[in-house]
Amino acid sequence: MLTDSEINEIREILDKANNPLYLFDDDGDGVCAYLILKKHFKKGKGISIKSAGALDTKYSVYIYEEKPDLVVILDKAVVKQELIDEIPCEILYIDHHPIQELKKVKYYNPLIHDKKSYIPTSYMAYKITNDNLWLAIVGCLFDYKSPDFLNEFKKQYPDLLDKTHTDPGYILFKTELGRLIKLFAFNMKGKNSEVKKSIELLENIESPYEIINKTNENAEYLQKRYEKLNREYELLLDKAKNCINNKDKVIVFEYPSSKTSFTQYLATELSYAHQNKTVIVAREKENDFKLSLRNQKKDISKILAKALNGLSGYGGGHKHACGASIDKKDYENLIERIRKLTK
After folding, report:
1. Domains of the chain
2. What is the DSSP letter of 116?
3. Quick check: 116 and 93 in contact, CB under 8 A?
4. Burial class (CB within 10 angstroms; exposed 0-12, middle 13-18, buried 19+) of 181
5. Which residues have CB under 8 Å from 308's CB, separation 6+?
6. In whole angstroms, what is the distance from residue 277 CA to residue 129 CA?
7. Residues 212-240: pLDDT tens digits?
8. Reported pTM
9. For residue 73, how many C-alpha atoms fall within 13 Å in the half-sphere facing its CB?
């Protein structure tokens, strides 16, 4: 975890900023980290950044448009120095992916203190603010982490999660709270204009019950978007389940490019159902395949790094969950290498 002095330093920087710009990963952890900080400090603007690829100079347009006095980067695995060099103001970078070496950035990452730690960005945002517990729970569980304040959540919201359940996979896929987490994740998908509207509505949601019970127009919109996308997802999930060979230790599911990517969430759900297997979900897109990989027993990030050696692709992430992009010509080679390395 971050040290007390680091947490205090972040608070002071966010307190004094007048117009912060948040650039956050568009997964459940990233969006919840943003919402926690935005709701607490009540200033600034947020821009969601697609999980795939690096945060690079193509995003500098937001710096010129918003003219922030502080840029806050949340939950982005790769940030390019070229973008940092174009930002004229102070930069906070709060993350939990493998450590990066960057200049001109105030960088906060629990891995600096403990290389074996796994602390989601939304967890850190909660510790910075001590506010919006429910959002921290949504973000942490999305990233497959049951935080040490889970029991406090159970006390405040006993009807959403009983005291016996702590396994993040069970909570994600077998409970009402899991459905709420899925709603957050799916509202970050689709057209930029739709995602932007969902984020703005989430900024005004004060309780999980608003969404669950559809108590206002904002919640109704979020539920409607979720239900539409979930219908697409369930069809894809059924196809994936029908492709599984129970004798094979590696599950590989490929699907063509569409307007919506479910690769990350689909890989996580398949991994929960098949915890002794390696899961690879590959989405074909133009000249590449975008992959999400899961293995609950082995370090899939290290396996991926070895498998990518000499191939036209890149990837990385966490010990049991990571992503990659690979040129179509090298895709079959990559899959075969992963099969051999996971034996």
Report:
1. 4-224 (3.90.1640.30), 248-341 (3.10.310.40)
2. T
3. no
4. buried
5. 314, 315, 324, 326, 334
6. 38
7. 999 999 999 999 999 999 999 999 999 99
8. 0.93
9. 32
Residue ranges of E strands in the chain? 20-25, 45-49, 70-74, 90-94, 106-108, 250-256, 278-285, 288-294, 313-317, 321-327
115-142: b (≥16 Cβ within 10 Å) or e: eeeebbbbbbbbbbbeebbbbbbbbbbb
Q: Report the alpha-carbon distance of residue 87 to residue 98 in Å, rounded.
A: 23
- Helix (H) / strand (E) containing 37: helix 28-41
Look up residue 288 and give its two tokens: 């590449």
Tens-digit pLDDT profile for residues 300-311: 999 999 999 999
1 half-sphere exposure, CB direction, 13 A CA radius: 13
Residue 91 structure tokens? 């930069």
Give yes or no for a contact between 227 and 214, defined as CB atoms under 8 angstroms apart: no
233 phi, psi to nearest 5 deg? -65, -45
Amino acid at 86: E
